[in-house]
Design brief:
The chain is built from 16 helices and four strands. The chain has about 450 residues and is mainly alpha-helical. α1 packs across α4. It comes from Trichomonas vaginalis (strain ATCC PRA-98 / G3).
Length: about 450
């Protein structure tokens, strides 16, 4: 009979395997790259949906299956005692979706999507998307869980003390009735037998000094984080051309022209600036600058009927006015994430956790997954605090830029011809898709921060 404590530990251990997907997605921008790929090359609505929605779910299920495989191997006594392993896996998946993912989805819907006008508060489309997401995720999990369990059962044969003793007792009782009255072996005591940690290291303090793995891991994570800021813009510089303003348009006069349009904000989704569909590819760099840092945007109805040359020059002009100091704050705030994981990994590796068969100072692959679990638990409570710091600095920058009369904050939004809109929200990264009044064509919509008295923050 499996103890409730062991099952709870197993659920936590396996459930937070999905943090691998979140961490890798944040470092390599998998979700945002896939969304841009959809925007560039998608032809139909169904193609856009499959690549923007199903592809991230596919990544997540692959990582989830890896976590399941590691769990099966390292927690063999618990796994072998589960009668219906497939049913247990499905129960775990649904608990994982309802307890971890659903609150985040609802938060994004009511506090992000609705505030930007993507959905109404009682939008039926949102709930249809949610149900469809739930069904597709279960189908994808089916494709991965069956081979994963089959492979895991072959890699983790029942060689533990507990199962061997149970089998031997049954064989002895069947072969000789006289031995049926022998005293039962206390399986709980045998299960809790652990080697003396002093045989491997003298103390947890020694593990801090003798295990250099956390240094290598920290160097890799921080390097990847910094490289993402270098390689990601370089990718767009190599494959996309940034349009330069034509010589007969002066940036200074263009700035004065922007200042002349100071209409009060009447609607969060007003016309703003429209760019013809053929020129959307020229604004990816500007879009990247707008998504590096969460923006507080003040809308104004400006230059809605300007010529394309003015719009191109205006985009480059706004690009040059984005606050570099604010982006620098966002960079250092984001750097807290790999540093926090390194600290948690170091503590788990040095202290050890008996339930996960982690001995002090003896690093095994299981340490990584357990560290991710604790990291995710801490981030649930630390995320709002981390997000509030750059937003505070950004609010100050907004008010400063508004008083000086220069447009600073830009959010680029790509709209498809079906007027389908969504919001990808992250405390550090945010990509906003806003509906427009013209569903027939694809437009890039620019909301700019202009001088209009007191800031009207969205």
């Amino acid at each position: 009979m499996v103890q409730l404590k062991q099952l709870t530990i197993f659920l936590i251990f396996m459930g937070f395997a999905s943090i691998l997907f979140i961490f890798l997605s944040e470092i390599f921008h998998l979700q945002r790259i896939s969304q841009r790929f959809v925007s560039i090359k998608a032809e139909t609505e169904s193609t856009r949906y499959w690549k923007s929605k199903v592809l991230p779910m596919l990544y997540e299920n692959i990582i989830l299956s890896i976590g399941l495989l590691i769990s099966i191997y390292y927690i063999r006594p618990i796994w072998k005692s589960i009668r219906n392993q497939y049913l247990f896996s499905y129960v775990f998946l649904n608990i994982h979706q309802l307890a971890i993912k659903l609150p985040a989805i609802l938060y994004q819907h009511y506090f992000v999507d609705v505030s930007f006008g993507v959905y109404t508060a009682s939008s039926g489309k949102f709930f249809i998307d949610l149900i469809l997401h739930y069904i597709i995720n279960n189908l994808l999990f089916t494709a991965f869980v069956i081979p994963t369990i089959l492979i895991g059962n072959r890699l983790a044969p029942p060689t533990t003390q507990k199962i061997m003793i149970e089998d031997n007792q049954d064989q002895i009782a069947d072969s000789d009735p006289k031995l049926e009255n022998l005293a039962d072996v206390d399986l709980q005591e045998l299960e809790e037998i652990e080697p003396d940690p002093e045989e491997h290291v003298e103390s947890s303090q020694t593990a801090f000094r003798t295990s250099p793995l956390w240094i290598y891991l920290g160097g890799i994570l921080i390097s990847l984080y910094i490289l993402s800021y270098i390689l990601y813009p370089t990718y767009y510089k190599l494959f996309h051309t940034i349009y330069k303003p034509t010589p007969y348009i002066d940036q200074k006069s263009l700035g004065n022209q922007f200042q002349n349009f100071t209409f009060p904000m009447k609607d969060k989704r007003n016309e703003s600036i429209y760019i013809i569909p053929n020129d959307i590819d020229n604004f990816y760099r500007l879009e990247l600058m707008g998504t590096i840092f969460p923006k507080k945007v003040i809308s104004s109805n400006i230059l809605s009927k300007s010529v394309p040359e003015e719009l191109r020059a205006g985009a480059v002009y706004l690009d040059s006015l984005i606050d570099n100091q604010a982006n620098l704050v966002g960079f250092f705030i984001g750097l807290l994430r790999p540093l926090l994981f390194i600290i948690i990994f170091k503590v788990v590796d040095a202290a050890g956790i008996k339930e996960f068969h982690i001995r002090p100072g003896k690093t095994v692959p299981c340490v990584l997954l357990v560290s991710f679990a604790f990291y995710n638990t801490v981030m649930i409570y630390a995320e709002p605090l981390i997000a509030s710091v750059p937003r505070y600095f950004q609010k100050i920058a907004d008010c400063t830029s508004v008083r000086s009369g220069y447009p600073m904050n830009v959010i680029i939004s790509r709209i498809d011809r079906a007027n389908f809109a969504t919001v990808t929200h992250h405390p550090i990264f945010s990509l906003v898709f806003v509906k427009t009044a013209s569903p027939e064509e694809r437009f890039a919509n620019i909301d700019v921060c202009l001088k209009s008295g007191k800031p009207k923050l969205m």
